[in-house]
Amino acid sequence: MSAPSGQETLPTNKAPKINVAAARRRQRAGEVWREFCSNRSGLIGLVVLAIVIGLALLAPILAPAETLDVTRITAGQNEPPSWANPLGTDPSGRSVLAMLIWGARVSLLVGFSATAVSMVIGTVVGMAAGHFTGWTQAALMRLIDFFLVVPGLVLAIVLSSIIGPGVTTIIVAIGITSWAGTARIVRSQTLTVESRAYIERSWALGASNAHIIRKHVLPAVMPLVLANTTLTVGSAVIAESTLSFLGLGDPSSISWGSMLKMALDTGAATGGFWWYVLSPGLAIVGVVLCFTLVGRALESVINPTLRGR
After folding, report:
1. Pick from 21, 55, 72, 235: most CB atoms within 10 A?
2. Domains plus CATH for the chain?
3. Global pTM value
4. How many CA atoms lie within 13 A of 173 on its CB side?
5. Dist CA 121 CA 137 (whole Å)
């Protein structure tokens, strides 16, 4: 049927709208991934981390909790590595391999959670210290300097002693004491971004502080925060192992640091039970090394001047 006179027919197919910004972000993400894959050491570190995280997530399937119940254990105490127990057993007869897999859950949980707390605090304080001026900037800079000067491990030990031992305590203690370095990096990048011409145009058009920080500063500092995050996770894993080794962790959970503490308390090192000491120690070193390799690879992607080094 023909349309009534005086009325125009509208086309049924509309041209799809192309989101240029989203397309550019996808293109840039692809370029970053290709540049990251060109760094062989960073790619190896990422693959190893993916395997470790996968083992930690599959711990209830690979090593059911019943295998760590001392009332159901049939293996002997302090047995050396064998086909039945590839990494031997501990003084209670538990499989060291099963403990290592379960310990990865706690160590990685603390590492990622504490790093998230540290990154949020460091990013917010760093952007505020670089954006605002006057007494606000002075107060924030003195706060950053205080946390940079005070030894983070000592402050974390004090906080853990006051709050009480536990996984949550370790997360809070590490997160609160390790954000100052990130804040200094974010502040430096914030000052660089706000010295550019398009920020002056935004001010001239009446942009607010919240608009400048949210639309311009935050997207510019996020790549540096991401690269620093991978390095901070490794430091958080070491800090968790140290605090657990000192007896400030959750005694009911197994982590790599608590395994080292149990090895010390039971005399595994002096008794010649090397497999109980070496396994968690190598796990800590390996995971921290992988996080470092990934962090350095991301730094080389973000900062092209580092690619030739």
Report:
1. 235
2. 34-60+97-306 (1.10.3720.10)
3. 0.81
4. 28
5. 15
